[in-house]
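Hi R.,

Here's the chain you asked about this morning:
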Amino acid sequence: MFNIILIGGGILVLILLIVGVVVSATSERALVEERLKQYLDEESDEALARARAESTALTEWMERRVSRSSFGERIARELARADLKLKVSEYIALIVITTIVGAVLAAFLGGWDIISAAIGGVAGFFLPRLYVKRQQRQRLIRFNDQLPDMLNLMVNGVRAGYSTMQAIEAASREMPSPMSEELHRVVQEMQLGIPMERALDNLLRRIPSDDLDFVITAINVQREVGGNLAEILDTIAYTIRERVRIKGEIRVLTAQVRTSGTILSLIPVFLTLILWFLNRQYLMTFFERSVLCGAIALGIAVILIISGYYAMMRIADIEV
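And here is the predicted structure, written out as tokens:
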């Protein structure tokens, strides 16, 4: 068991080392240029040459083949929403590494069995995506919590005589991350000559927030038909602040239901995996008398677990 722990720790350290080297290979300037290229498709030849010079041969080869495809654009959008400093090719390489490492580690623990390797490979394949989804959820929650304060800063700026762009730029200097980073990107795009409507649409693509959509729609309508922007944003800020407060109370009240549903749904899965790797003979007695009956019972159990988890999450999902 001690040897297994050492091997697992060594593999984990190797993965972290590879990820660190890959991330550090891309500078912040190249990152901004690549992100602008993904969403605006406008980049100079000089900037593209600098980005390619800083890439390795393998990542450059993969980048040319996946970045322009719909699959690559979808991955780039997911990485941008999670604010991960990775290119599409680097993210795909990370998935390949975790899949191989997971398959080898699971095969070692399971006696070099192909089913064990498949289990580890599937777990390694979905592990980076689960991390990206988790980062997206946390970042979206932080952004929505900061949105009312950002609107208050914009209202004060507009009332002081700032234009909309100047108010956004002032808010980007005062707000913490992730709000400051996203507003800074909007200001950069507008300084490059991108219309404000398109820059705000790009912001909404990176941050799929209903509250932000409400704010952007109000700003665009005001720019077309006129009106008191400060008063409009002040009213929206009050509405969003109340929604954030109510959502926080709902999250607290439904935390027990969501936690219980998640834990109760994962217990059978983890228990089955533990028995598979530690006492497979005991687990296989489930199929001793009839493989068909065992498979049917197993399928019914999976359906009940999924339906129970879905029902509990629906109970805790209260729209505001």
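One quick note: DSSP finds 15 helices and no strands in the chain.

Cheers,
M.
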